[in-house]
């Protein structure tokens, strides 16, 4: 596995359900036209799994990630993609537990724990997403929600060297809203330091990250990088974020 603790920053692009063969070609052309200037940055692109084979071996100094994997390793599970299949496509990372998958596809912490275990068995780093709704935030339940998600979704074979946590407040995803810098730093401090058995994990922030706020967010002491949705679809914008 990669030594994720040695990276200063981890910057991941989540394309969600977007792309086409033509889009992949243009994206690669743009992204590869300039080498990344920053040292110590682990950059990751997570396209829909159907496009992974188009990106593998064609990304310069950027790792490949998937957006989800099956709870199962093989068998009669129509429509699923397993962790070992992602391994064959040279994925080093896989997002699991994104709030869209938790909400729309009814994935539970138990499902996410199973997926993360399967990924770790294949030496793929899970990027486990956690985050509160606006209602939970307004009721002051953020830390309780995060504690529950973290303690139930990190599998026994996970460690700070293998698992990345992505703090994504649900109300900040795709809305152009973000918590204040102080709030982000405070929540990341809580995640990194105050949960027994899960200390010093890499914690990246996601939710309306763009090139104009990425530098300020990534300069925060407790922020180890960003997970970028909408803004990652523009390769120039994503490169700016990688160079932030
Ligand atoms: P956004 O999405 O950057 O478009 O807010 C982030 C995510 O869903 O991971």
Distance between the termini: 26 Å
Distinct ligands, ions and cofactors found in the model: 2-phosphoglycolic acid
Tell me the quaternary state: single chain
How many structural domains? Answer: 1
Strand share of the residues? 15-25%
CATH level-four homologous superfamily name: Aldolase class I
Assigned CATH class: Alpha Beta
Question: Biggest β-sheet: count, sense, barrel?
Answer: 8 strands, parallel, barrel
Mean pLDDT: 96
Summing up helix and strand content along with how strands pair, one would put the structural category as alpha/beta
- CATH fold assignment: TIM Barrel
Order of helices and strands: EHEHEHEHHEHHEHEHEH
> Percent of residues in helical segments?
25-40%
The tally of beta strands, per DSSP, is 8
CATH architecture: Alpha-Beta Barrel
Task: Give your account of this protein's structure.
The chain is an alpha/beta fold and 244 residues long. The chain has one domain (4-242): Alpha-Beta Barrel (TIM Barrel). It is built from ten helices and eight strands. It has an eight-stranded parallel beta barrel with strand order 1-2-3-4-5-6-7-8, surrounded by five helices. Helix 2 links the parallel strand 2 (41-46) and strand 3 (63-66). Helix 5 (109-121) crosses helix 7. The chain is globular, with a radius of gyration of 17 Å. The relative contact order is 0.15. The structure holds 2-phosphoglycolic acid (PGA). The site of 2-phosphoglycolic acid (PGA) has 13 residues, from strand 8.
